[in-house]
Amino acid sequence: MIIVVKKEARENQIDILTRWLEGQGIRVGRTEGNNQAILGLVGNTKSIDEEFISQFEIVESVRRVSEKFKRANRKFHPEDAVIDCNGVKIGGGHFAIIAGPCSVESEAQINEVAKAVQASGATLLRGGAFKPRTSPYDFQGMKGQGLELLEIAKAATGMPLVTEIMNADHLPLFENVDVLQIGARNMQNFELLKAVGRTNKVVLLKRGLANTLNELLMSAEYIMSEGNPNVIFCERGIRTFETYTRNTLDLSAVTALKEMSHLPVVVDPSHATGKANMVEPMAMAAAAAGADGLMIEVHNDPAHALCDGPQSLTPAQFDRVVKRVMAIREAVKATE
Description:
alpha/beta; four-stranded antiparallel β-sheet
């Protein structure tokens, strides 16, 4: 249920209404719309009489929300959310580029890549320390040592870190990580979602290989229901009958998610296509579609990468992609 409060309502009046609702066992979230407050009610609102609520002097309108996701719903939060990743903002017109290798392989490698992508315009550094792989015999990441090397690169560049967490028990290891990535395979690992929801860290939530947008939104709801509002969606392609690309990039998800939710949406063209030569056009298309950011894999020697070399760009290729993406964004702005 959503209660829209009149513009002229005083704070003490809103407080009285809020306390009454909480007394009915309802959790109340407040957001600011166009010069008016919006109260989002979460819980068993069936017992709340809409006509009774409408009689409060400060209430402009009351309406029920049919969707199961509440906190992630744009109806609860009409304005675009701006997520602050340790000084780097995403959403609400703030565009971010997350770049770095699929896996951290050595101190020299992550430092070289970090400095290169930063020079080209990347604002956050990605790198895998714990790697979920289809085969148990593939490189699984450097784990704790990989996190330490990421921290060294962060100290050298000042770039906030984005890396994947696979197990809630590992949370203490991620104390110096700025953005916790929930990978596609863990999108519906509900215990992990609830665990990161109890932190105050930004969570980058990737869409699952075969999950609907509604399921993605409900996964975000798991995180937000634990008290953490700092969620960013990541469209990374879904599994279809097509085999030419690694996955099928669903750019319509950018528009759809922005209609349904206030949370930012970034696109990962590297995992979506699995082909380095396709990253540039898909990154440009994502920017044109209104994405709030990109997540791109960059390696200083893709041919010898321990993970996902075929989809990784060289630093020089990444530099070209950033220039062209920014040109697309400027062209779109010019038509607004």
